[in-house]
Amino acid sequence: MKQKLRSHDWFGKSDKMGFVHRSWLRNQGYPDDYFTGRPVIGICNTWSELTPCNGHLRDFAEIVKRGVIEAGGFPLEFPVTSLGETIMRPTTMLFRNLASMDTEESIRANPIDGVVLLTGCDKTTPSTLMGACSVDLPTIVVPGGPMLNGRFKGQCIGSGSFNWMVKEKQLVENYTAEDIHEAEVGSARSQGHCMSMGTASTMACMVEALGLTLPGAAAIPAVDARKKVMAQMSGRRIVEMVKEDLKLSKILTRKAFENSIIVNAGVGGSTNLIIHLLAIAGRMGVELNLEDFDIFGSHIPLLANLKPSGSYLMEDFYYAGGLPVVIKELKKYLHNEVITVNGKSIGDNNANPICYNTDVITTIDKPLQENAGIVVLKGNLCEDGAIIKPSAATKELMKHRGAAVVFETMEDYHARIDDPDLPIDENSVIVLKGVGPVGYPGMPEVGNVDLPEKLIRKGVKDIIRISDGRMSGTAYGTYY
Amino acid sequence: MARLTGHIIELDVANRRLHLDISDEELQKRKSAWKAPEPMATRGYVKFYIDHVQQAHLGVDLDILRGGSGSDVTRDLH
User: Fold this and answer.
1) Which of B6, B50, B71 sits opposite A403 (nearest CB)?
2) For position A478, what pLDDT does the model report?
3) CA atoms of B37 and B49, how far apart (whole Å)
4) CA spacing 20 to 30 A to A46: which of A75, A97, A307, A383?
5) Half-sphere exposure for A185 (CA within 13 Å, toward CB)
6) pTM
7) What is the complex's ipTM, to 2 decimals?
8) How far is CA A334 from CA A216, A259, A264, in A?
9) What is the pLDDT of residues B7-49, one digit of tens each?
10) If you average pLDDT over residues A267-277, what whole number do you get?
11) Digit-coded pLDDT (tens) for A315-364
């Protein structure tokens, strides 16, 4: 059966408009048969030199194109707004929705039959996916992959997780400027995104658990040749998906979202999953609310021993077997029958992965922590809910009463936090206001504010911090 | 600026509770006395964002972006 392609409405016309649509595209050198019946695959690229974690994606687009052409498709790459987490002020979260609008309109307005999302850095996955959801074409995600493990003084250091310790290292361990410089240059030593289980890795695991990537895609390091193979195979697969009309709405069912919540708990993923998954579900018209994260995730055991909840990094995770091992271990909690982009169920895709290192990925019988998923709290301070990630928090603080030390704004915090007269001790509760979606604006990742110098010198590692902002996916400590 | 420092906050993860230890009456009084700070932008995308953004428990999307519009485009460029 010859199916009518969406792009045929542009390229299949014999009138003036068909002439216009084809003629100008030809200036890039496409033969006649590219315009007759080949599925047009839009490769949505978040490459940018200002998004260093996605800096390799221009090369990856060429690899995806190889796969598209092999499968008989016509690849056309297009850029969308890219969001560099470590550079953009005041926060990339302010621009996630803007990037999603860019993606949505770029897909819909163009002669595209299927979409490949090239993503990496934190917001580049949810923003492009949200946009793609609002159009609902066949879509596959190619996650750009984590950097190699950071190295410093003969040890592995996690991107993100180290920088939250800089103040402590300087004050308590007398790190010199040279030490800090050495950590800085050793932290990001290859292409790719943060290699801890920060938000970028969380987003990659999220899309794999949702069924939007080829199996095992999330954990492969950006510079591993197998990442390139995954990109090429994704290019081949999207052409088939167009022929099968395997649209996002057929994959992103309520059950797929529940799976993603469960898998996120198992890997100790970022709390940022919540706002992104809620937004993606909102685009799909799938009912999902904050309480669902507690209902489906909070009782799930932690299996992946990755920073910031554990000790290892994404490179180790990949060598140990990656997300397929976690998915298989969590099988009894998951909806195994839900379909994924390769046309098979998530259960079938992850039936027999081998775990090569049970220190990195534990079995469900010996988890790193029971009941590790995100918890949703209620009370007079948070009528609509507050969240905490127990796997990255201090156990002793899980039940606590303490006096509030309130900061009205981020600037107020900076002005007073190291004031020797500030009435604060290890039992205090820091409350940071004015860092929410409207107030800051953009709900930045400032919830994980540093402790005051005087407490760090006393050896205090953690106190409770409450804010209307977010916590970085790479951070650790007790935040609400 | 008055800074409310020192009231007791109670948290109890097992019981899913985060509570400020003051009376409901006092809390209501404070809420009605609270004035939203001036918005950080009066033009451009950021103004648009501030006017339309939803709170965190809803996903921080813009209200007008929820849902989808499908892939149909009915009108041509000429």
Assistant:
1) B6
2) 55
3) 16
4) A307
5) 6
6) 0.96
7) 0.94
8) 17, 6, 12
9) 999 999 999 999 999 999 999 999 999 998 999 999 999 999 9
10) 96
11) 999 999 999 999 999 999 999 999 999 999 999 999 999 999 999 999 99
Taking the Cβ of residue B69 and every Cβ of chain A, the question of whether any pair is shorter than 8 Å is answered with yes
Three-state secondary structure string covering A352-376: CCCCCCCCCECCCCCCCECCCCCEE
- The pLDDT, as a whole number, for residue A441 is 94
Helices (H) and strands (E) in chain B, counts: 2, 2
The answer for residues whose C-beta is within 8 angstroms of residue A365's C-beta and 6 or more apart is none
Query: Is residue B26 less than 8 Å (CB to CB) from chain A?
Result: no
The per-residue pLDDT for range A133-171, each reduced to its tens digit, is 999 999 999 999 999 999 999 999 998 767 777 777 778
Task: Select from A100, A381, A470 the Cβ nearest to the Cβ of B18.
Answer: A381
**A398 to chain B: which residues are within 8 Å by CB?**
11-14
**DSSP H/E element including A226:** helix A225-244
Whole-angstrom Cα distance, residue A31 to residue A26? 8
With CB atoms and an 8 Å threshold, state whether B59 touches A281: yes
Instruction: Count Cβ–Cβ pairs < 8 Å, chain A vs chain B.
Output: 183
**Residue B30 touches partner A, C-beta closer than 8 Å:** no
Q: To which residue do tokens 């009309």 refer? A: A245
Residue with tokens 């259960």: A347
- Cα A458 to its chain centre, rounded Å, is 35
Task: Tell me how far apart the alpha carbons of residues A79 and A247 are, in angstroms, rounded to a whole number.
Answer: 22
Give the pLDDT confidence of A412-461 residue by residue, as tens digits.
999 999 999 999 999 999 999 999 999 999 999 888 899 999 999 999 99
In this predicted structure, the answer to whether residue A372 has a pLDDT above a threshold of 60 is: yes
Beta-strand relationship, A74-79 and A40-45: parallel
Question: How far, in whole angstroms, is CA A340 from its chain's centroid?
Answer: 18
Half-sphere exposure of A248 (CA within 13 A, CB side): 29
Angle, helices A272-284 vs A96-109, to 10°: value is 30
Whole-angstrom distance, CA of residue A367 vs CA of residue A373: 13
- Residue at token pair 């140990």: A320
Whole-angstrom Cα distance, residue A309 to residue A303?
10
Is pLDDT at A88 greater than 80 in this prediction? Answer: yes
A135: nearest CB among B45, B54, B71: B71
A338 min Cα distance to partner chain B (Å): 22
Cis status, amide bond into A146, omega within 30 of 0 = no
β-pair partners for B6:
none
Over residues A124-138, the mean pLDDT reads 98
A1 — pLDDT class (breaks 50, 70, 90)? very low
Contact B6 A404 (CB under 8 A): yes
Helix, strand and coil in chain B, % to nearest 5: 30, 15, 55
Contact A441 B53 (CB under 8 A): yes
- Residues in CB range of B50: below 8 A, 6 or more apart: A438, A441, B39, B40, B41
Q: Name the residue in chain B with its Cα closest to that of A401.
A: B10
